[in-house]
Each structure stands twice: as structure tokens, then as C-alpha cells.
Amino acid sequence: MHLLFFCKQQGILNKRYPTGTRYTPVLSRPARRRDSYSAMTTDPNKGPSPGNHSQATSPPKPATGPSPLAEHLDPADKSGQAHDVQPGLRRSRTVQRRQLPTPPGTILKRILLFLLVAATLYSLTGFFLTPYLLTSTLPAFLSKELNRPVTIGSARFNPYTLQITLKNGIIGPDLTEPDDAIDPIFSFGKLEGCLKPAALLGRSYPVASIRGASLFVHLQRHADGSFNVMQMIQRLVPPSSRLRPARLGDFLQSGGIHLTDSRLYFNDQVSGNQHKIEAIRFVIPEHGDDSATVSPQFSAMIDGSAVSIGGHSEQTAAGQSTSLTLTLEQIHLPDYLAYLPRPLPGLLSKGQADLQIVGDYQVSADQTSHFEIRGSGVGRDLWLSSPDKAENTIASASFSFRFAPLQSSLIFDKLSLDQPSLQIQRHKDGAFSFPATVRAEDNSSESAIKIKNLVIKSGRLSYIDQKVEGGFGAIFNDINLSIAPLAGKEHLHSYALDSVTSRATRIASQGTVSLARGDIKGLLVLHNLPVSALNSYLPTDHDIAIQSGIIDKAEARVEIGLHPQNTTLNLQKIQGSVTNLDISLQGKEWLHIDQGLFAEAAFAAADASPCRLGNLTFRGLTTHLSPDSAPLFQAIVNQPAGEHDGLLTDLAIDSGVLMLRGFSFQKKSEIPIAITNLRASDLRPSKNGLGTITASLGLPGRASCQLSGNISIAPLAGSLQIDTQRLPLGIFTLPEATWLKTEVEQGTIDIKGTLSLADYSLSGQLLLADTLLRNKKTREKILQIKEASASPFSLTLQPFDFKAESLALDRFELFIDLTEDTTSAAALFFQNSALAEKARSNVTIRETTLTEGTIHFRDQRLKPPFATALTGVHGTIDDLINEPGRACHINISGRGRQQASLTTTGTLHLFDENFGADLNIELRHQPLTPLIPYLEPMVGYRLAQGNFDLSMSYQEQAGRLKADSRLTVRRLDLGDEDLGNKHFPTTIALVTDNKGEIRLPLSLANDMTDPSYTLYSAYGKKVRGLISKASVSPFSMLTDFYDTEQPPDHVLFTAGTAEPVAEAQARLRAISDILKARPLLRVTIKGYSAGSLDREALLQQKRREAEKKRLAQQKTLSNDLVEAYGREEIEIPASLPPAENGATLTVAKEELLELARQRCRRLKEILTQQYRVDEHRIVISTETTVVPESGAGLAGNRADFILGRLSPAAGKGET
């Protein structure tokens, strides 16, 4: 404005100048300047001569040429001066004018003008453009970078004070995750900041001060440990950003932070906690000197608990030093333990604490940082939660600690627990759970939490063991424990323990403990300890439990490893005494000792480490041996030589009883064996050989046994000489009683031989006398032996193993009684025999000789029961071996009733998974009389007498039966009463040959696993099928007598005649052969006529007869006409009379029936005259039939042959 006003005042704006001319104003200047200006002339040819300044003081010379302004005057100017200026001159003068210096007043005005424009633009930008950009462009930019909706309600910016004010800002959910529930993640009501331009240029914190109100942050830690806010910030400030990471000291030294009425919600997916921090007030005072001390202030309500932070931060030439003090009152302690460097295996479930925590953070001049937290506190009513959710409480606890986050270590300088009540539990899988146990992840790594001094006062410990059968529990009261570091031992602590259990047992121990590894070593002293308290540490493989007993005093060296997955307990050099000890095995009484002394014993709770009993002396011992104790016994005696220096060194039993219980070889529930005196010495394996043993035993039934020999235990080795006299067999049963389902009722056995302890075998000679075996269920006799001997033999009872080269049975009786639940005789003895299980038993008898035996057989499945006996049984059974696939060979013969005999040879597979047999059975001259009660219901007819032979090939394999039999019946006489099957006589006639014998091949193939299946029912079904076949299709049983495709059960006749067709001769010949081969058969002929075919044939015959008759009449008429010819006119009728042309001819039904009877008579005539068949064996049926025109089946012009049994009286019989 000033410039325009000045130009107008000079009149410059009122003049007109030619287009294209440059205006250079000539201002009124002082004379000095004009002189100076005029002195600076320019030679057109030489250019400017600025060096002629010496003439400035000379008087001015009059101008000889036009003035410099003249060249710019208008040509029409009134001055009349010419305006034609040469171009070269104009350019020269223009250059002169450009090189003239600008006056100072002009520069000042230009600067002022520039400042004025800049201030105007700066103000417009600051007051208007910047707020616009902050509310539009900035949210759009942030939304794009963060993938979140961003809004800022309003903004203000003072460009002169550099103060920014933002209101109502919101950052919404992540748009890339539709399920993001964090909305909003950040918001503020008001946010003010004062910028620091110098800090911006220095790339440090650009804000001199920040003031905020109503801030809200929704912070979330993901399962991988990352934070949502940090992820959002990293999108804006990538790792390649030039801004260096902030330090705590830098942050506090920045100063000028004032936040009020703010909130922070924290969702921790790692720990599962949620926290609300409300009423946040955070102040860092402003300061003017970088070396000044800053005292920040923080207060808030965290989940309803008041929290305050105070302290100071100091910046010196040596570096930064920051110390903050955090005071927490009545906080819920479990929520804060989740943020330790490593979570605890057992966490606090509840409890309150007052904490004062001091955090020191230092950064040296060389940028080395150190951060440590130290504090102290008091906890009250603490509840420790273990993995099994047991209740573990601590009445009060005081502690002081140090925490180095950068090293992830927490050190308790002192931890004092008052009246803790804790629980340790071992689960069924053997794993232990401890409350709040802090251990290293493995043996080589150090624990994240260390305890230097631990004191427990008036503690209580509950121990629960679920792995022991029925569970186990113990309570330790008045526990006083102190643990302190050992001098010179970094990882070891000394301990002293004193406690009293709920069972009044005093326990004292002292030694060393490694808290990092959980290992304890020391001396353990017990007084008045119930032995049952050791149940939890006994091996669980054999289910041993101590029921009662008191250890008066015991000392031992103890080693314990407290590892949740592998807790171990080892006791060495145990010595002491025990009284009234009772031990059970699998819940049953196993061992009782009135008094026992032990020394040099050892015990290990690890599964693979056995016990060592050392030197034992027993008085009043009672032990029960059973199959359940066999695995335990095997585990004891099968230890390798030298392990643990032997299980047992010396053993002495002054008095005792050995009770045998539950073995498969014993009949009574318990068999007592009295131990009158037993001495064993030097049982530890050594290079000198075996120890010695002597024993005198009293057996039931006044039997006796003497043992002597060499022996060692663990491993068990040696051999004993045994001499047993008249041992009653009634106390034993056969091994694996399911084999024969029998038990020994009486008999005695004498044994002389050697008992080998290496394989528990007995070898020598045995003699059985007066032995009787009965069926367990029915109490019926099974086997009775007068005398049996085996020599040589070997026997092992568990598992059962019997071997004998020869076994002789003399005067024996075998009773086979088949009941309704027995599928076969073999199943009575060998029903999936347990002896076939090679792992449990072994039977090998090379040769068994039978003499003077009797086999009684009874089948109660038949009504009435069938019974017979086979006497004089003799023969051999070879290779009776219980191996799958091994067959025993039998050759047995005997005598039956009325000269009947039975011989059986072949093989039996008694010990396969399924019973197998391949036998040839020959039964000769067996009378039918004892079998008639069973055969008559089968055939449905009365039987009088007869006998039979049976030759059978019997095969049974895998439950499938195949039997090919040849049955020959002789002199079979039938009764005269029909029991429901009138076709049976015809069946007999069909199969009885000219010799009066019936020869039937009978083949069976059935499933033996069907409980209802019997050979009787199988043969009955076969016979009934034969009878049914004879009644339905008798000719199918006579196929040997004809070779035609169709059975000769009918013949065809020429239509309208009684003459059979030519093909009928073969059928008639077959009928003749059948009647000759089966003398008990007779044949009945039944005639038929076809209602259409035969009727038409007979009608044609009648027509031919009528035609012949008509022709004869015509011939007679013709002769008469010739005679009368010429005498009179001849009148020829138009047609013959109806009766004469055949239009009324018919065939009556009686004519057809007569034709059928003629056909029957014709067939009988052919059979009797041409084929010489006895006339009485051919019967003509009185029934004839006319087959209608629509009748289906065989042709009507036929005659049928019906077979039947010839009645005793000729001419009579079954039709």
C-alpha cells in the first residue's frame, strides 16, 4: 500500500508510455546522489567506466545529449523532443540503469513488505490451515497407516505460542480383523501440547509439555506376548525410523507432562487377567535445566486398590539415574504374580499384601543400562493353588526381594512363612504336584526365582498318594524348618527339620538341600514309626501294602529328589527293629512277623530299583504263597548277581508256617507247611559258590519232607534233595483245572528226586496209588486208577510243566457222561484246554500204556439216557504233547455187548486252539436192540430187531465236523405200527438189496460250535431227509438202474390208443430192473387220458368209421340206381342226412376213462410177459383220470409208475 501511494504521488502512474518500454523512475535525490549518478556515464563502445569516480567532485558538465529520461518520453509529448532512440543506445542505457545501486529506503520497505506477507501467510496457515489439516488430512493419513478408523473432533493451533489443542479424538478397531472387539483402542477428551522447534531439529522429543484429560487406552497382550498398542505404533514408526528408542530417564527428563482423569483397560490373554486402572493422575513437572532433578508423581485406582508412585530422576554428566518408589496397599497379590519373568507352576489363588517396591534405573555415559527392583512386603491369608486344586494356605508371610528384569531373575533374600498349611499329592500316574513350586526347567539351567533364607514356623503338611491302592495320606504337624546358604557352596543350603506326624511319629533330619534342583541329602532318624507309613514308597508293580507294624527306632541315610514327574526316595544303611509286622499282597494276607531284626538294609522308591534286605532274623513268621506272589518272588530272585551286593545275606527262621494258597495244583483253599527249623547262611553271591540251607517241613496228612542242599538268593540258584512220603493227593487238583474239569478226590503220591531252584523243576520217580478223579460240577466219577507210575519224570508247578517218557495205567476206569451242555465226548475233557497255552503250561508224555481198562459211556442228551460200556480196553497213546499242531496217536480196542467190538485209530489235536480229530472208527456186530428207543423217534416207525456195522472216518477241525460213514444194516424187521411216518417202509424197500442188507453212505458236515448240535441229531436229520426224499422222489434213490435223463416214473401212449410210444421201452426195462434189484418193492400203475388229444384222436377214428359206412351205403345206392335207370327219373337228394355225414359224432368221458384203464392193462401185460416181472408186484390203480385240455404238467396220454413197499400178503401194500 505504501508503495502504491508513493508511485501515485510521484505521478508515475499518470503517464503513458509506449508499449514495450521499460519504466525506470527517476526520483528526486539529493545533489550528491545526482552527481554521483551523472558521473557514472557509459561509453557505448567501451561500456561502463565505474573507475571514474575521481570526477565526482568536479562540477557537473552540461549534458550534451538527451537526458536519460528522454528515451522513455511519449513521442507526442509537448516537449517536442524526438523519441527515436537507437536500439543499441537503449540497451546500453538499460544496462546502466540496472547497475545503479538501490537506495536503502527501498530495501527496508521491501523487507517490511516481505515480513508483512509472510506474517499474513503464517497466520493464515497456523490459525486456519493447520487445524483443518489436523482434523481432515491427519486422520485420513493415520487411518490409512493404521488400518483403523481415526477421527479428531476439533483442533486449535496458535502459531505464535506453538500450542496445539485437540479434542474428542478416537482410534477405532482394526479393519483387517472383522472380529476385533477392541473399540476404541485409544480416545481422549482433550489433549494439549506445546511444541519445541529446537527439539524437532534435534530429532528428540518435539513436545515441551503435554496436558491431557479424559484419556482412554484399551491395552491387550496377545497369547504370543505382543501388545496391540505396540503393533499399532510399529505401523507408524517402523524399526528403520531415525528416532532413537526412548529411555526411562529421557522420558522423565522431558518434563511437562500432566494427565488427569484418565483410564486404561488391560486385557492379558497370557494370564487371563483383566485390569481396570482408573482415576489416573500422572505429573512430570516442567524444569528449565537439563541437570535438574525431576520428581514425577503418579496415582491411580487399580481394580479398586490405591496405588501411588513417587521418586526422582536426575541427569548428570555421569549419566541418568532414576529411582521410583511404588506403594501398593491391600492388593490382590495373584494378579501381580502373572507378570513375573517366568510364571510359577503353582500360583496364588487369593491373598492380600502390602508392598513397597523401589525401582532403580541407571544409564551410564557409555549407554550401559542397569535396572533392578527391590522391595519388601507382608502377605496375609495367602492361598496357593496347585495343579490338583488343593487348598494350600499361609497365615502370614514376610519377605524381602530383589528383581532384575533384564536378567529375568527374582531373588528372595529372606522368606519367612508363619503357620503354612500345604499339601503334596502324587497322582495315579506317579506324577507329583507341589504348591507354588519354583524349579528350573531342567537340571542344567538355573531357576528364575531363588531363595537365600527360608524359615517355616509351626507348619502343617498333608501328603496324599493316589497311586497306592486305596490311597494313602499322612499329616505332619509342628513343622519347623530352616534353610540357609552354605559357605562356599553357591547352590547348596543347609537345613534342619523337626516334625511330629499325626501318628505320634517323631521325625528329625538334617543335611543339605539344593533348591534349584530339588535334591535333599541327609540323616533321617525315626522313632515309633508305623511301618504302614512306608506304603507310599513301596513298588507298585506287585501291589504290596503294609497293614501294621511298628519300627521302634530306625536310622538311615536319605536322598530325595523332588521332581513332579520323577520324584525319587532312596534310603541307605537302614538298621533297626520291627514288631508285629503284617504285609498284604494284592489285598490279601501275605506275611506276618512277630519280631524281626534288620541291618544293612536299603530301599529305593524308583520303579527300577529293588530293595535290599541285608541280614534278617525272624521269630514267629507266617507267610502266604500264591500265584499272585509269583511275580514278586520272580522279581526278587531274578536280580543279576552282584546287584546291590545281593538281596539277602543271612536268614534265620526259628519258627514259622508257610501257607500255600490259590495255586492251580491245590484243592483246599490253604495248605499249611510247618517250618520247624530253617537255617541259611552265606546267601550273597560270591566267587566261593553257593550258600547252604537245611530245613525240616511238616506236610498235611502226616506226610513229611526233608530238604538239604546249596542255595543262593538274588539270583536264586542251587538244588535240593527232596524225599516226600505218602503225600495225599486229595489236597491237590490237576493243573489248569479247566482242562479236564476234574479234581482229585483221593490217592497218595511218593516222590524221590532233585528239586532244581534254577528252573523250579522236580525230577525223579513218582508212584500214584488208589487215585480217583471226579467232575467238579456234577461230582460224577471221571477216572479211577488203581496204580500208575511214571519214570523218569520232571515236573514244574508254576508254570505247570510235566514230562514223562512212559506212563503206565493199570486197571483204570474212564467215565464219559455227556450232558445237554456237552457238544461231544471230546469236549468233556478238552474244551479249549488251558494246557494248550504254551506260555502257562507244558505236558509231554511220550508213551502211555493202557491195560485192563473199562470205559463207561452215557449220553444224557437222549431220552431215555443211553448207556453202554466198553470192557477190556487196551492200547497205546503216543506223543501226548501240548503244542499247537502236534497230534497224539491213539490205537485203542475194546469189547461191547453181544460180541460187539470197537477199534479206534488215528490222531487227536487236543491242544490246538480248537479241538481237532482225524479218526477211523470200526464198530462191528452192534445189535439194534439197545438203540431202538432212540431210532424209533428218529424214523417215525416201530422197529423189531436187527444189527449193524459202522465204518466211520471222523474229522473235526476248527469247530467244523466232517464224517464219512458206511452203515450196513442186516436183518431189519419192522413193526406194524406207524409212529407218524408212513413212508418209512417204502424208504426201506428202496434201499434193501437182494441179500436183505441196507448199505447207506452217510456224510456229515456241520458246525460243532452250535451248542444244540449232536451226532445223534445230525444222523437223525440225515435219515429224515432220506425218508422225505423217498416220499417225494423215490426214483432219485434208484439212479443206478436207469441211464435216461428223466426218471422212469411214467410212459407216453399214442394218442387215442393203448400202445406206448417207441421210447417207452427203455423206461419199462428200467422198471423191470428196479423190481428185480429191490425185492421189497412193488409198482402201482395209474392211467391217464388227454381230454383234448385223446378225444380228438377217438373222434377221428369215429369219423373214419362213419365215412366207411357212408361209402358202403353209397355203393349200394349206386347199384340200385343202375337197375332203375331208364325206368324212371332219378331224384338225387341235395345232401345226406345229418346222422350220416358225421356232424353229430361225439366222445364220451367214459370212453376216455376206459382208454386210461386199457393203457394200465397194456403196461402190466408188457411187464409180465415181455420182462418177466412177477404179477403180484404190479398193481393197477383203480383210479383213472382224464386230464383236461387246460391241464398243466405232464401230457395226458400217459401212465404213471408209483413205487411202494410190497406187503407181506401178495396183492396188498401201500399205494
Summarize the structure.
This protein has 1215 residues and is of the alpha+beta class.
Tell me the total number of β-strands.
Answer: 51
Q: What is the end-to-end distance?
A: 156 Å
* Tally of individual helices: 16
Q: How large is the radius of gyration?
A: 65 Å
How much of the sequence lies in strands comes to over 45%
Structural commentary:
The relative contact order is 0.02. It is built from 16 helices and 51 strands. The chain is flat. The strands form three sheets. It has a 44-stranded mixed β-sheet that branches. Strands 47, 48, 49, 50 and 51 form a five-stranded mixed β-sheet that branches. Strand 21 (472-486) and strand 22 (489-501) form a beta hairpin. The protein is of the alpha+beta class. Helices cover 17% and strands 46% of the residues. Helix 12 (984-991) crosses helix 13 (1015-1032). Among the domains are: 2-42 and 66-101, no CATH class; 136-304, no CATH class; 819-844 and 855-1034, no CATH class; 1035-1102 and 1149-1205, 2-Layer Sandwich (60s Ribosomal Protein L30, Chain: A).
Features:
single chain, 1215 residues, alpha+beta, 16 helices, 17% helix, flat, disordered N terminus, disordered C terminus
Task: Chart the SSEs and their pairings.
Blueprint: H1 2-9, H2 31-39, E1 42-43, E2 47-48, H3 87-98, H4 104-135, H5 137-146, E3 150-158, E4 163-171, E5 186-195, H6 197-201, E6 207-213, E7 216-221, H7 228-236, H8 248-254, E8 257-268, E9 273-284, E10 293-294, E11 297-302, E12 305-316, E13 319-332, H9 333-337, E14 347-364, E15 369-385, E16 391-404, E17 409-426, E18 432-433, E19 449-451, E20 454-465, E21 472-486, E22 489-501, E23 506-514, E24 519-530, E25 544-561, E26 568-585, E27 588-604, E28 614-625, H10 630-637, E29 648-653, E30 656-661, E31 670-681, E32 691-698, E33 704-712, E34 717-728, E35 742-756, E36 761-775, E37 781-797, E38 800-818, E39 841-859, E40 866-881, E41 888-895, E42 901-909, E43 916-927, H11 932-939, E44 941-957, E45 960-978, H12 984-991, E46 997-1007, H13 1015-1032, E47 1050-1052, H14 1064-1077, E48 1081-1090, H15 1093-1124, H16 1149-1170, E49 1178-1180, E50 1185-1187, E51 1198-1205
Helix pairs in contact: 12-13
